[in-house]
Amino acid sequence: MLSAAFRSTELRINPLAENNLNQAVDHYLQYIEVVRGYSAHTVKNYRRDLSKLIEFCSAHAIDDITRLNQSLLRQWVATLSREKLSATSIQRHLSSTRSLYKFLARTRSDLDDPTAGVKAPRTPRTLPKSLEPDQVNQLLNHHSETALMARDLAMAELLYSAGLRLSELVGANLNDLDRTDKIITVIGKGQKTRVVPVGGPALAALAEWMKYRPMGDEVLGYHSPLFVTQRGTRISPRAVQDRIRQLAIKHGMTQRVHPHVLRHAFASHLLESSGDLRAVQELLGHANIATTQIYTHLDFQHLAKVYDQAHPRAQKRGKRNTDS
Q1: pLDDT digits over 243-259, tens only?
Q2: Domains in the chain and their CATH numbers?
């Protein structure tokens, strides 16, 4: 009911009331939470970014949305840079501000976008860390002796088999997994639904985990979480990160392993074997193929390493040809 009520009033905002920056931000945060259905984590990030904007404006005696301009926002970017924020963080702050003004423009056609033409520092292109196939085997090829071991192995197997994001794994319910068709349905970024295949080893690990359900006071139902704690409550993202890290340590891995590393491994290994960038984009749930293309660089880096090590006429990188 709250969502319907908010939808019915969102386009009848009093322009004068929205001139106040604090009120405008509060209204926008309510909009993305109630109407757009953004996760609590995402709303928290927007709130943090826009609080930095309010803090900067307050220091410059600005509390009116119409007084922000490109010059002031460039000063804000410079301030964030002096505070040692990364280029990625500054880009996110600008993106949050741009989204705020895009929302306000729906009822204020006369409102200029102060972020137009304002750019954050360039983000250095870094390749995602991944795992070699033998490292994945080192992590996953083990027998589970307890309920928690079975759960942790099932989580790791599913992250690698389906290339899930951490939030997608945590948010999955029992009814999202179809063991007959060997697929799982997940809700990704922007509340977008996608269906991803699940491999045999992951299905076997999930079947083993299900032998220990219910857990604690849990009552199994159609919408029960796929992964739970010993008390039967949905496992948290922080707990998944910690358990995957502990799983890697237990099996003698020196590289720090976290859920996103397994997603990277899924993407890079699939692309290396298939070369089908579009298919990998769909499986990862990337809206823009440019996001997926970074794995082509990761794949080339691996191939270049193999070439340097194996080709009899390969010349080690960084060394000059002394024969010339």
Answers
A1: 999 999 999 999 899 99
A2: 2-104 (1.10.150.130), 133-310 (1.10.443.10)
